[in-house]
Amino acid sequence: MATNTLHLQAIALAAVLLICRLSPVTPAASAQQLTGCRDKCGNINVPYPFGIGARCARDEGFQLNCDDSASPPRLLTLQFEQHPQLVSLSLADGEARVLLKPESKCYPPPEERSSDVPTSSYTSINGSTTYRYSPEKNRLVALGCPNLGYIVDGSGNYVSGCMSACRRPSLGNDTVPRLPGRCTGERCCQSIIPPTLNFYVPRMFNFENGTAAVDNELRGGTTPCRYVFLVEHTWINTVYNDTKDFNRSDFEAVPVVLDWAIRNVYNCSAAKRNATDYACRSTNSECFDTIDGQGYRCNCCQGYEGNPYLDGGCTDINECLRPEKYGCYGDCTNMLGSHTCVCPPGTSGNWTDRNGCRPKDNFPLALKVVTGVSVGVFLSVFMCFWLYLGLQKRKLIRTKQKFFEHNGGVILRQQMHSGGGTHGFRIFSTEELKRATHNFASDRVLGRGGHGVVYKGVLEDKTVVAIKKSKMMEEAETKEFAREMFILSQINHRNVVKLLGCCLEVEVPMLVYEFVSNGTLYHYIHGKEPKADIPLDTRLRIAAESAEALSYMHSSASPPILHGDVKTANILLDDKFNAKVSDFGASKLAPTDEAEIATLVQGTCGYLDPEYLMTCQLTDKSDVYSFGVVMLELLTRKKALYLDGPEENRSLVSCFTTAMKVGRHQELLDSQVRNEMSAEMLEEITYLLMRCISMNGEERPTMKEVAERLEMLRRYQQHPWAEAEDNAEEIESLLGREQQNANYQLEQQNVLYLEEGRNYTFSM
Length: 764
Ligand SMILES: *[C@@H]1O[C@H](CO)[C@@H](O)[C@H](O)[C@H]1NC(C)=O
Ligand SMILES: *[C@@H]1O[C@H](CO)[C@@H](O)[C@H](O)[C@H]1NC(C)=O
Ligand SMILES: *[C@@H]1O[C@H](CO)[C@@H](O)[C@H](O)[C@H]1NC(C)=O
Ligand SMILES: *[C@@H]1O[C@H](CO)[C@@H](O)[C@H](O)[C@H]1NC(C)=O
Ligand SMILES: *[C@@H]1O[C@H](CO)[C@@H](O)[C@H](O)[C@H]1NC(C)=O
Ligand SMILES: *[C@@H]1O[C@H](CO)[C@@H](O)[C@H](O)[C@H]1NC(C)=O
Ligand SMILES: *[C@@H]1O[C@H](CO)[C@@H](O)[C@H](O)[C@H]1NC(C)=O
Ligand SMILES: *[C@@H]1O[C@H](CO)[C@@H](O)[C@H](O)[C@H]1NC(C)=O
Known about the structure:
By secondary structure, the protein is of the alpha+beta class. It folds into six domains: 29-78, no CATH class; 92-169 and 180-260, no CATH class; 268-312, no CATH class; 317-361, Laminin; 396-515, Phosphorylase Kinase, domain 1; 519-764, Transferase(Phosphotransferase), domain 1, CATH 1.10.510.10. It contains 21 helices and 34 strands. The strands form twelve sheets. The protein has a six-stranded mixed sheet, sandwiched between helices. The chain has a four-stranded antiparallel sheet with strand order 6-7-16-9, with no helix packed on it. It is rod-shaped and about 185 Å long. The N and C termini lie far apart (160 Å). One 2-acetamido-2-deoxy-beta-D-glucopyranose binds next to loops. Its main location: membrane. Residues 1-31 form the signal peptide. One of its GO terms (biological process) is cell surface receptor signaling pathway.
């Protein structure tokens, strides 16, 4: 049986809880009273179960009256004999505050005392079923001296009390300063009261018939009136002011806090058994037992507010409308009895804080890790690659530096610095030349030879240049290379192809020359589409200019610069067919000692000085020999070696000398030359030619002599009639130059050959 009841109770409780959570309510204006009942008296709300009038209150214990005659209207409870005023009412706390008059006893002064029966009045709750004196909020207070105040319950038993006394005026200074709110025994005492107190009778001990001992200490000072009453503790500790007079019988009413409850059943579980009588009417309400004995009260469930004692009295709280109270500053959704709160989309954080929702970090941790790792990996790969490239580049730079040093770049640079002006000569970088030639593209090739390839290049400043990229270079050459470069760079002659610079960062240095537009002399005279006619004057001029250039090279420096490979392919023609001797890159400084004598024979077949072939010693006369061959080519328009002829006549030189011996050399000359040239001229030029190609180097004239003679012949060819006057001038100027250049030996008689018109024989 007992277990069944328990089960039932449990089920009932569960059902109530379930109802509390889930039952839907129609949210209505939260009414506090039954329909047709006043819910206000003055400024005090009167919620059900209280009611003004018998019909409106739950029972007579909750019945109130409203005295509308007073201003403001006064709410009165009917539970007390004197119908004291009710000044506040709270459903949630289960509290009511009433004003009650204290019990007082006033004695007239002894001399005026006619009777010892004091005036008396007291107030109490007469066995109320609704109210109890709140033990937490009320105190028993006795005022006046001497006063032993106490209260007794309905059956006359002592409940609580305290003793208040005053100092004897004769024994001490009664003017000690008093502090307000002190109720510690002197003139005022207080005591706590037990719970469940709903009735008391105040009492005061009569000191008139006391003993002497009592007289002495306790009856020291007397006050006309003494009081004993219950009062709210905040009143006695803050409002009470003991400088008040203790001679008033009409002591003002004091506030007393009452706990109210539905007390017709013992507890909630008992109350729920009688559904018609159960006070917690609202479906969204819950019942709880009072702590001061019999009774229960009702509350709205969590998330609801209103009056639980009325049907539908508890309504849902829209928490979203009160963010401060419910701590939702995010996106709020109200639900019955609750709400949800989240930070707005795209934000996260503490929505209970006004600025708690912050823009979301859209990067989840996992993604961060993945990103971090991949960035790290990428960076390290990149770093490795970069490092590798850096090392490669360093290696390249080191290689370049090595070549640069090996090729004498340092010395060259020093010489350029110490040797004064650079005359536009500069050291190029590999990249510069690569850019200039489109990375040595094949369409930039100007010519290919045994030594290397010549490219046409355009520098960044739009200068057109010819870049000679040699195939290889002898170890011995590299040693002298820088010095030679330097000397060549100093040369500035209009008939010498200017060396603009070099690039030393490669194994075999590249040379950068000025670009000469009209190709080689070789091409000019032996080209595939040969010029139909080349005037003798042009031929003489080209010869004279070339000779002048070589002569300049031989005489301008010490030791002299030897070309070593004079041939028609090394004489270039510019746009006005001016001759420019090129390829001094392969040239040599005249050896200064035995050890420097070249060990390798250089030059081109057909042009080689036979003496050089035998001695391996290149001299300025070797160039003269080679130049002789060039002159021969110019006059005969035949190649130095023509491989299609009969075996003994393949060399132009031997062919010519053979013809010379039999006096048929004229037949070898180009027909145009034969036509244009006078007999004297032919004689003169043949004489010069034969001297140049003499087997014996010492018999050959110097380059300077050749140059001057050619120049004279050219002038003669141009203006044979002005020869006489010109000659004198010429000689004069030549003599003048001789003084400047002591090395030069002018053979004056040679100048006069023409005038004398002699015939010459040659020893071969
Ligand atoms: C309560 O008051 C009534 C009159 O209102 C009285 O008859 C009754 O004796 C009182 N009860 C007590 C316990 O004082
Ligand atoms: C009481 O104290 C006041 C000032 O403190 C003093 O003037 C007065 O004489 C004292 N009276 C007695 C009886 O000691
Ligand atoms: C005080 O005592 C006297 C006699 O000693 C008596 O007559 C009087 O009634 C007593 N007064 C009270 C209030 O008990
Ligand atoms: C106490 O009462 C006296 C006279 O009524 C007044 O002068 C004094 O200011 C009061 N003290 C306090 C703290 O209320
Ligand atoms: C109360 O005492 C004051 C002086 O302290 C006096 O003026 C007043 O008349 C007294 N009132 C009564 C009813 O004794
Ligand atoms: C409620 O009161 C009844 C007696 O009326 C008692 O048997 C029961 O145990 C009480 N329940 C609680 C929860 O106090
Ligand atoms: C329930 O309460 C009402 C009124 O309070 C009463 O009339 C009725 O007898 C009670 N029912 C039971 C079963 O206690
Ligand atoms: C959220 O903010 C409130 C108010 O600033 C604070 O009391 C609470 O501790 C915070 N909660 C968290 C989880 O930080």
